[in-house]
Structures are given as C-alpha cells and as structure tokens.
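Example 3.2
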Amino acid sequence: MNDMSAPPYKVVGTRPVRPDGVDKVTGKAVFGPDFAASGMLHGAVLRSPHPHARIRAIDTSKAAALPGVRAVVTGADFPTLESLTMALGESSGDVLDIARNCMALDKALYEGHAVAAVAATSTLIAREALQLIAVDYEVLPHVIGIEEAMAADAPVLHDTLFTKGLDATPDKPSNVATRFVMANGDVESALAGAAAVASGRFTTAPVHQGYIEPHACVASVNADGQTQIWASSQGAFMIRSLTATILGMPISDIRVTPLEIGGGFGGKTTVYLEPVAVLLSRKCGLPVRLVMTRDEVFRASGPAPGSVVDLRIGADKDGKLVAADIEFRNSAGAFPGSSVHATAMCSLACYRIANFRVTGWDVVSNMPSSAAYRAPGAPPVVFAVESALDEIAMQLGLDPIDLRLRNAVRPGDPGPMGMPHGPVALVECLEAAKAHPHWTAPLAPRHGRGVAAGFWPNYGGQSTATVSVAEDGTITVVTGSPDIGGSRASMAMMAAEVLGLPYEAVRCIVADTASIGFSMVTGGSRTTFATGKAVVEASEAVVATLRARAAAIWGIEDDAVTWQGGAAQAAGQEPLTIKAIAAKAGQSAGGTIAAEATVNPLDYAAGLAVHICDTEVDPETRQVRVARYTAVQDVGRAIHPSYVEGQMQGGAVQGIGWALNEGYVHDAGGRVANAGFLDYRMPVASDLPMIDTVMIEVPNPAHPFGVKGVGEAPIVPPLGAVANAVSRAAGVRLRDLPMSPDRVHAAIAAKG
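Structure, written as tokens:
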C-alpha cells in the first residue's frame, strides 16, 4: 500500500472480521432461494423456445385446471403502460421495456423470454402446468450479431424503434436505438501527421456476470393490496419503484425486504421476477416464490453487451498521442440500453488527447436484454484502446508504461466530456507498476507481458442512514444499501471512527423499504462513498447530541465539551462515556439518542487502475495460461483494506475470464448453446495465479475519510492487459475475445 497521507485513524484502515461472515460460512444466512413464507406456493415461468416469434394466442385453460395450480398469468395480466424513462442507479431505462422483458406481450424477442407463469402447491406441479400451456407462435426471422442487426435488410425487433442521435430524423424503424458522438479538434489532420498509427477492428462477446445465486423472490399480496416482497437484489428501493410502476400500484403499497445476495456485479439492478410474482400472489391470495434455474439465468437475465470496435489512434515520434478515431457498436439485446454514453466516456478517459472522435451505436438483437456488469460498457472499448497503445509502443520502441506516463491524465486535465478530472492518481499507479518487481522480472520462454490502464467515473447518488445509541452505549447503524462487497463492515468502521468506539461496539443492518429512507442501488462503486457519507453525517449528529447531553449534566455550555475516545471531555470534569450518557437518556427531555442523514453527493471521484499480466501460450494446444498478475489501483482511502484487495482481485479474475474463456455462443437457430457453468467456461482457482495487489491511496478530499469507489475500475484493464500479453507471447495481435485456443491457433497460423 502506498499511503500518501495517513492520518492516525484507529478503526479506518484496519481489517476486522466481517459481521455477516459467520452466518454465511455456517449456512445460517438467508439468501433469495432460501426464504419461505407461511402457506407459500411455488411458481414457474414458461419461456419462449424461439429467439423471435409473434405470439398469436395463449391458451392457459388446461394448466389452470390442473389440480394444485392456483394461478396463471400472461402478458395480458400486466396493465397497459406508456413509455416512461426511470432512473436505475447511474443509468436509466424505459419502464415499458422493463415490463415487456419481465413478460412478453405480442412478441417473444429472445429464446428464454417469459410468456406465462403459474403458481402451484409444488414445484413439480408448477412445471407440469407449464407443459399444458399452448402458445400459438408465428416464428419470425431472427438476428444475433451486431453488424447483422444493423444491416438495412435485418429483421426489425421493434416497429416503434427509430434511431436517436442521427443528423436527419429517420423515416423507418431499425435495430439501432441510439447514435452518440463526442468529438474535439481535427482528427483527420492529426492522424495524417502522426509518426505512428495503430488501427484495426476489435470484437468482444456478450458475457454473463456469473453470480452464484440465481434470481429469486417471494411476493405476498394482502386482500387490501398491501404487498410484501422478499428478494435478493442490489436495491430494494429499485424493486419497489419498478414493480409499483410496472403494475400501476402506489409505491407505499409495497414493502421490500432485502435478503442476502449471492453475487450481483451489476446484474441484479433490475427486475425480472418480482412483478410476475406479485401478479400471481394477487390472483391466488397466497405468497408465491419464483426462483430461476441456472439455465434460465443464462437465457433470460442480462449479460454484458458484446461489442465491435473500429479505431485509429496516432502518436508523434516522442509517443505523445495526437488523435483518436473510435467507432463502437454495443449489443443491447432485446431492448435498448447498452451503456453507450459510459462506453464513450471511458474510452479515452485515461489519457490527454487533443483531437478525438468517438461514435457509439446502441444496437438491439434477439438476445436477452443486456444488464450492467461492473464498469458497464467500459472494458470492451478499453481493450481496443489499450491494444492500440501497445502497438504504438512497439512501433516507436517505447516502454509501454512510459508511453502511458507521457499521456496520462492528471488532476485538472479535461476529460473527454470536457469536465476537469478530480484527484485522479493514474500517474502514481503507472509509476508504482513500473517500480513493481513484476515489471522488471525476466520473462520465461513462450511468455508475454502486457499492461493496460482503465478508468471508471464512480458515482454518488441518494442514500439514507440512521445511527442510534442503545441503553448500554452500543451503536446500531441502519442503511438501505444491500451489502454486496462488505459495506456492513465499512459503515460500522466509519461510525466507530467518528464515535471513538471500538468496531465491535457498532452493528450495521440493512433495512427494508418501510424502515429507512430512500437509497439508490448498491452499484457504480457508490456505496462506501455515498452511504458512508450519510453514516458519517448521522454519526456526527449523534456526537453533537452526546456533547449536548454531557453539557447539560455538567451545567456548562455545549462548546466547552469535546468528544474524544468515545467519551465527553471538559475541563475540570470526569469524562462521561457514551454508556454513561446513554443510561441517562430516559431522564432527558431529548430522550433516545439517534440521528438520520440523507445525502445525494455529487463530489465523487473517479477510480483508475493499471494491471500487469504475464501469459504463456502452449506451443501445441495454444491454450493460454496466466502465469503472473498484478493489479495496481487508486483506491482513495481503503476503509477495510482486505475488502479493497478482494475487489481488485475479483475484478481481475472476471476480466481474465472475459478475455480468455467467456462468451455467449448461439447456434444457427439463435439459441444459447452454453447456458450453464459446465459449458460457459468461467475461471476457477486452478486457472489462476495469486493476484498481487498494490493500493495507491490518494484520498478524495470531498469525503470525510477520502473514499473513492473501488468496485468498478478493477474489471476495466484486464481485457487489454491479457490481450497485450497474449499478443506478445504469440507474436501476433489478437483482436477478438475470448482468446480461445482455436482463435490463438488461427491467428498464429495466419501469420505463417
């Protein structure tokens, strides 16, 4: 760890045991598929076997008559909706699209698209009932590939989809939802005068987040319409607002209780099952549980978009980048929303470059609608850019890190969108990478070494927290942010630091939507920053109350009282501990000592990372082995260093899988051919070396403890770092991911 300015914290920066760890390793923690309500029925969803088909009719009568079946719903049971854009974390989505993704109405748009659902007294009966539902399909031509979907003669998914962002208003629908352009300077002239130019086409496949726990929920609707939902997700309030809007319900009628989450990585920031479960429960008057199978998770929940990127990047003879021309096309799946704005923003955000043109296309096709996957939209385009920089370094005979150092953004430099960068520490990360023993270690035969950098802007967003003092002086912190990366511990640690208490004296819980004020989804690397700010503000308010109570006990002014070491201090007085003050709370006019804070901070700071990778290419099988890996990252202030290291290592592993193994495979019929962990090849422990981590701590001055988000940036560099290492080991540039043995073999064979 490179600690730039370490204050004397007692709790922040330590490594206590996570408060939810014991329950999770002993099996006591309740995840989505574990939860059961009294009298609960079991649901199942009928899914389209066709990637594109008109639904002419659905006959559910035989299913409804099956003994044990209590309810059946189809798209016709959903209310008629108008197009409405809603905020979903840092991004937004059309609620009409989200509703149609939960249940098809007139057309099935991908294999696995839900077309009906049943609730029955057992799972076996529910699945038997699905076989009795008769769906009259008119099978339509389908399209999977990005460029095929953009073709003028491609089958059109949505008759109402007209491309936004074109110079002229289109007069007919297409599969292109949006064109987004950001540009500056004279790109063509700068490229014409460049001493070195790297160009080419780079492609990535759609990949799934691969969370261990499938989507699951239980819904229970009372006779008066009051509804409870228990679910595993990244945001209980998101479930509440989307379900209410989709079903035309008052938000106050829905109470969502978050369960433990077995992984999300951005893939659980929308709804798939919850509105369906509510409709089933409303019909039968009993709680209904819906749980996806692993096959359904792959076929019916959102992967990260695939991409096609064409680029030209030029540099002068000294390695200064002079221009970049990037055009990318993202696969949105069945409905628009493939993060083209984030893709464009992140493409060149690490570097100072005066002349650039970045054009992005959001393209729909007959695949599951895409969803976030950590830094959504950033890894594929950064893979292309970092590969091009590696080529430029080779053309100019420069050290790849030196090339990046010559162009790295610094605080105050304008970003691609024109806004100045905040306290970024890319230079410090690059210098740490260059000084690391990994960079200077000799390479073994058939090995290659690659380096890549990555950027994610991070986020703030709305958060609420309460801090209360119990009668014995212990503390309860309540937030509305699901814990997907150790936030219970980090919240407790920040509260303990402010209150001057040991970590063990603070307990943090995640409340349901009726017990705490609104909080955005846990995503975008916002939680430790934004919810942490709310916790600190509430803790500071509690300290102010404790000082005032002590002052009243002593009969002195509040300003004469300080708070140190978990106790009130004043000249000539014996310190009053928090326990002593809390014991007298019932005798005070103020009563219970507690505070709530709500925040919506906009002063978040970006996260940047630099990764080094060594790979070996087997001379016979062309299998790629990752031999060594180092992740360096600007982490702001590491509240719990072990969690930060885990985020860095986890992002690297997921990026390695994206680069080498992972990707959706469709057969000629448009069906997913690898919908399971057996065929969808995610990395396991035996595939990887120990991943070394280097934390660069350049605090964000806008946060009381200097926090920057750390969860997104780690997945941005790996694709480029691994590709650069493989390309150097193979002696030929690899431009298509995943770099499976057959692709590596073909590239080497083509070179001759």
